[in-house]
Specification:
Bound molecules: FE2/S2 (inorganic) cluster
Distance between the termini: 20 Å
Strand order of the largest sheet: 2-1-7-3-5
Order of helices and strands: EEHEEHEEE
Number of strands: 7
Shape: globular
Strand content: 25-35%
Helix content: 10-25%
């Protein structure tokens, strides 16, 4: 599990290991713009203000992934046990 902190609302919640982050964001009332929902198109690119990302997309370059300041919220997640701070 990892924790998500939404920077704009201050809302925090925990995402279970097999729970899709995008589904949970929607359940929390956050509706990121999406298209492919498979980590390919880049539409759901979201700024990450803090935390450790587990990237699972095919869109960002290795260098962009390593920078750790953006993620594709349709497929990527937080590293287990950490808190991801999203600009949402
Ligand atoms: Fe296409 Fe997330 S919606 S990469």
């Amino acid at each position: 599990a990892f924790t998500v902190a939404l920077a704009r609302s201050g809302h925090r919640f925990t995402v279970a290991p097999h729970e899709p982050l995008l589904e949970r964001l929607r359940a929390e009332g956050v509706l990121p713009e999406t298209s492919c929902e498979g980590g390919v198109c880049g539409t759901c690119l979201t700024r990450v203000l803090g935390g450790a990302i587990a990237h699972h997309d095919y869109y960002l370059s290795a260098a962009e992934q390593a920078a750790g300041d953006r993620m594709l919220v349709c497929v990527s997640r937080g590293q287990p046990g950490t808190t991801l701070v999203l600009d949402l």
